[in-house]
Specification:
HTH-type transcriptional regulator MetR; activator; alpha/beta; 12 strands; D-Maltodextrin-Binding Protein, domain 2
């Protein structure tokens, strides 16, 4: 049996704070007799006294003073851990390490996080880019907690919660020949330089839903990580790009580029929150996804209610 227990530290701390057995007993919710018994139990275990008998207010031996130092170190940590465990049981505390597969997602995700933090301040949130690694396998390994993606992969234990539906649009310079066409065909891109994010082509909407089914590839492919860099390259006639409609609204309004639909019906797809099955019912996770849905519908133009996955 351990010689020193948390209850002993709490008793000694109460004795120091209150100065008497009567008041200390009330503070730790014990009778005076029970507190005296607990104090004697501690001294018997240690084989030496920790308080000086018949001192008023109560004084401590050197051993008792050393235990009070320990109490000052340990009790705040114990109390914090107890509070954390209660909040975890209530679903108010957790971890959200989020990976984002497109930089334009920051435009709507940051307001979502700001709104979420107001009601869930004890949830640890961290953001990383998903460009330099494949985040979905990392999610399955519990290295991440949530991935924002438009490219679901069939992985065990991972579910995809649709956030909203968006259209992928082709952006071209204002004086580009394709700006004169109301609808873009795959063949229109066969002679173009396509500027994309630096991810596998099969994970990009323009390839997955538009070019590859038509067995068409652009003449050149160039990559850039930042949306603003891609737009600047397009505006200066260095190529064309395909981006989500909600991510280019400001650039279209300022006249930097023009946008056209890909195909007669356009390319519409979902943006998803990918999470692990074992986290799906956590209140802090459910609330984050609800906040993301509401915030995106409120702040983004051109999106639709999501289709179920």
């Amino acid at each position: 049996m351990a010689r020193i227990e948390v209850k002993h530290l709490r008793t000694l701390s109460a004795l120091r704070d209150c100065g008497s057995l009567v008041d200390a007993a009330q503070q730790v919710h014990l009778t005076q007799s029970a507190l005296s018994h607990q104090l004697k139990e501690l001294e018997d275990r240690l084989g030496q006294p920790v308080v000086i008998r018949k001192s008023k207010p109560i004084k401590f031996t050197k051993s008792g003073e050393r235990l009070l130092q320990l109490a000052d170190q340990m009790l705040p940590a114990v109390e914090q851990a107890e509070q954390d465990i209660v909040r975890m049981a209530e679903g108010k505390q957790g971890r959200l390490h989020i990976a984002i597969e497109c930089h334009s997602c920051f435009d709507w995700l940051m307001p979502t996080i700001d709104e979420y933090r107001e009601d869930w301040p004890d949830v640890e949130i961290d953001l990383i880019s998903g460009f330099n690694f494949d985040p979905l396998p990392a999610l399955a390994r519990a290295e991440l907690d949530l991935v924002i993606t438009s490219d679901p992969q069939n992985l065990p234990g991972i579910r995809y919660v649709p956030l909203f539906q968006y259209e992928a649009l082709l952006c071209v310079a204002k004086d580009h020949d394709l700006a004169k066409k109301p609808v873009i065909t795959p063949q229109d891109l066969a002679t173009e330089t396509l500027i994309t994010y630096p991810v596998e082509h099969s994970r990009l909407d323009v390839f997955k839903y538009f070019l590859l089914p038509a067995n068409v590839l652009p003449t050149h492919i160039r990559t850039a990580e930042l949306t603003i860099m891609i737009i600047q390259l397009v505006a200066s006639g260095r190529g064309v790009c395909a981006l989500p409609n909600w991510g280019i609204t400001d650039y279209l309004e300022k006249g930097y580029v023009v946008a056209r639909s890909l195909g007669e019906d356009g390319i519409w797809t979902n943006l998803y929150a990918a999470i692990r099955d074992d986290h799906a019912d956590a209140p802090y996770m459910e609330e984050f996804i609800n906040t993301a849905r509401e915030c995106s519908q409120r702040n983004l133009r051109g999106i639709l209610e999501p289709e179920e996955f």
